[in-house]
Write a structure and sequence with these properties.
Order of helices and strands: EHHEEEEEEHEHEHEHEEHEHHEHEH
Largest sheet: 8 strands, parallel
Number of helices: 11
Number of domains: 2
CATH class of the largest domain: Alpha Beta
Helix content: 25-40%
Length: 320
């Protein structure tokens, strides 16, 4: 069995190839088991953590025959920090097995896999939902995932200007400096409302508990990509955003209950399940339309799917 490190993953990956692998995966589909999450009791004053296991299996990543299919399982822990205002520490691995024999093939670095998967999923959705001439991207959040999201969106749209907003201006500035040399400008802003008003695409990847994006700030034609705050009670956008936008998900089954951005307005009666236009499978298969007209506001909320995990893991394994 191979051990595939984060460094090895970074060396072979690019978003243009990965997006096509992911698009094929969502078109073909896979079999996914039910995700299991268990609480982890922790002594000495630490809040309890969570251990999540999710799996999928199919043959869309095969090279020659249907027997080259894969089975994949992601094992991930989320352990709250003892320090106030620090997000939970998330770590994990991905086990890839032969779909024919069940033989373990590789153990992949989970964090690197999730970074590429999350960003590519967002960009794949953007290819159906954002305006084709979108050139201004607002990145809300400056964590580890943010640079991946920026590059992924730039792989599907002609991004020329990126603004970064973060609760910590220093973190936003550091990330902006690290991303110099890209074929687009990267700078920071302290005016979140103004930045939302001027953006074609608003991408959020934060751990916020309360909404950051106000519906009053939205302009016609904006596409919102919500990646962070996947706790059932945490939200990145207020009800004004959710009621103005045409809504799309990565997963019909999990996301409406796992993501507070949907669960809260659904529970409060502000939204109904009928307000959800489509998921990514239907978009990729052509069963549902994405953006219907130029001025439409669209929103994509993702919490991660076992399908996408397996697609990315197989993509990596066949290239390392």
């Amino acid at each position: 069995m191979r051990i595939i490190t984060a460094q090895e993953i970074e060396a072979v990956m690019n978003f243009r190839d990965l997006l096509e692998t992911l698009r094929r995966a969502f078109r073909v589909g896979v079999v996914t088991g039910r995700s299991h999450t268990q609480n982890i009791a922790r002594p000495h004053g630490f809040d309890q953590g969570e251990l999540t296991v999710s799996s999928a299996w199919h043959d869309f990543a095969s090279q020659n025959t249907i027997e080259r299919g894969f089975i994949g399982t992601r094992i991930e822990s989320s352990l709250p920090s003892s320090e106030e205002h620090h997000p939970p520490s998330v770590a994990g691995v991905y086990l890839l097995q032969s779909g024919k024999t069940g033989t373990p093939l590789a153990l992949l670095d989970g964090k690197a896999l999730v970074n590429w998967r999350a960003a590519a999923t967002s960009a794949l959705a953007s290819s159906y939902l954002s305006r084709e001439d979108s050139s201004r991207l607002l990145m809300v959040g400056a964590g580890n995932l943010a640079p991946y999201l920026i590059e992924a969106h730039a792989a599907v749209r002609p991004i020329k200007e990126v603004l970064v907003w973060n609760r910590s201006p220093a973190a936003a500035q550091k990330m902006a400096e690290q991303m110099q040399g890209q074929p687009f400008t990267v700078s920071t802003t302290s005016d979140l409302g103004g930045a939302v008003r001027g953006a074609d695409i608003v991408c959020c990847a934060t751990s916020t508990k309360k909404p950051l994006i106000n519906g009053e700030w939205l302009q016609e034609g904006t596409h919102l990509d919500l990646v962070g705050s996947t706790h059932p009670d945490h939200r990145e956008c207020d009800n004004g955003v959710m009621t103005q936008a045409r809504l799309f998900l990565d997963d019909y089954e999990r996301t409406p209950t796992a993501a507070g951005d949907l669960r809260v307005p659904l529970t409060d009666g502000v939204l109904s399940l009928r307000d959800i236009a489509s998921d990514l499978v239907e978009l990729c298969q052509g069963d549902r339309a994405g953006r219907r007209f130029y001025e439409q506001i669209t929103l994509f909320k993702s919490t991660g799917t076992a399908l996408a995990d397996l697609a990315v893991a197989g993509h990596i394994f066949l290239r390392v």
